[in-house]
Amino acid sequence: MTAYLIRRILNAFPILIGVNLITFALFFMVNPPDDMARMQLGQKYVTEEAIDKWKQQHGYDKPLFYNGGKSGTAKLTETIFFQKSVRLFLFRFGRSDSGRDIGADIRERMWPSLAIALPTLLLGLAVNTSFALLLVFFRRTYLEFGGVTGCVVLMSISALFYIIAGQFVFGKVMKLVPISGYDSGPAAIKFVILPVVVGIVAGIGSGTRWYRTLFLEEVEKDYVRTARAKGLSETEVLFRHVLPNALIPILTGVVAILPLLFMGSLLTESFFSIPGLGSYTIDAISRQDFAIVRAMVFLGSVLYIVGLVLTDISYTLVDPRVRLQ
User: Fold this and answer.
1) 73 and 141 housed in the same domain
2) Same domain for 53 and 182?
3) Which 3-state string (H, E, C) describes 253-279?
4) Are residues 189 and 229 in the same domain?
5) Residues 318, 173 within the same domain
6) pLDDT by residue (tens digit) across 198-247?
7) Number of domains within the chain
């Protein structure tokens, strides 16, 4: 098992390097530093002196990959690629184009994102699997037909509708929770409740249908019929046999989205004015702050690869066959 995990971790590094190179090419070859300076300074009445000054202040006055005017290792280190891209591997995010410390912003904003995304994931997983098991328990009945129809209806409604409806009903009409905003400490709970509930409700349709499909695939297998022949009740069959054997695809879906917990939800954080990483990225795109966007793209790639490695590790825990590879 150890050798298997080491191989998976080593395979992740070339992927991360490739993503970093592609990101660099998109940002600096398609959109060169001169264009970035004009976007920050304004398209009209921008002099070359102002562009050169902006590039010098933000470290964009160096060559892209190779600095022939330097000697030794400085030929490679005194370049935009090394200063802006290679240092990301050491999680040195540097400063934004507006002068802010990106690393400090990430450490500050990660907690509001986790405060919303983590309860949404855990509670949503519990709700979706419970509804899916209930539909499988009453399969081939009108209850299952009605449940599947309800899931399709829920899936057909945009997540934006749930956000606006939740803010209107629970925030404006019933005045149970604030419509938007955030606070630190225990006071943050009242701001988190509505985004979490909206996130769970918005995912019930697709989540329940997905888990129901997994459980239906397991419930017709030979080992399940054998368990029924031994006298086990349908509830025992579902919880002792079907649910554990469906953990592998469930873990694949859950662990793969773990990076999104850290990165936050762009839509939810924007509409609820949550100062998380999702709104941080949206604001950076609006301000055309490319340093922040590059950092968030790289961080998202790292976390996604970490999620894939965690998926492989989880496989070794639930599937003995993987441990033998």
Assistant:
1) no
2) no
3) HHHHCHHHHHHCCHHHHHHCCCCCHHH
4) yes
5) yes
6) 989 988 988 899 889 888 888 888 888 888 888 888 888 888 888 888 87
7) 2
Determine, yes or no, domain membership for 102: no
Query: Is the per-residue pLDDT at 168 higher than 60?
Result: yes
Is the same domain home to 229 and 145?
A: yes
What CATH number is given to the structural domain containing 252? 1.10.3720.10
Span 27-48, pLDDT tens digits: 777 777 777 777 777 666 677 7
Q: What is the mean pLDDT of residues 99-104?
A: 85
Q: Which of 60, 90, 120 is the last residue of a domain?
A: 90
My answer on whether 128 and 196 are in the same domain is yes
Measured CA to CA, the distance from residue 118 to residue 124 in angstroms comes to: 10
- Give the SS3 label for residue 133: helix
Phi-psi region of 185 (alpha: psi -120 to 50; beta: other; left: phi over 0): left
The pair of three-digit structure tokens given for residue 34, joined into one six-digit string: 């001169």
pLDDT at 150: 92
Overall size of the chain counted in residues = 325
Torsion of CA 255, 256, 260, 266, to 10 degrees: -140
Encoded amino acid at 249, one letter: P
Domain shared by 46 and 121, yes or no: no
Q: Count CB atoms within 10 A of the CB of residue 279.
A: 24
Query: What are 18-28's pLDDT values in tens digits?
Result: 888 888 887 77
Domain end, chosen from 40, 57, 90, is at 90
- Angle, alpha carbons 141-144-149 (nearest 5°): 130
| Interatomic CA distance for residues 162 and 46, integer angstroms | 45
- DSSP class of residue 188? G
pTM of the entire predicted model:
0.79
Domain that holds residue 308: 107-323
Q: Phi, psi at residue 101, to the nearest 5°?
A: -80, 110
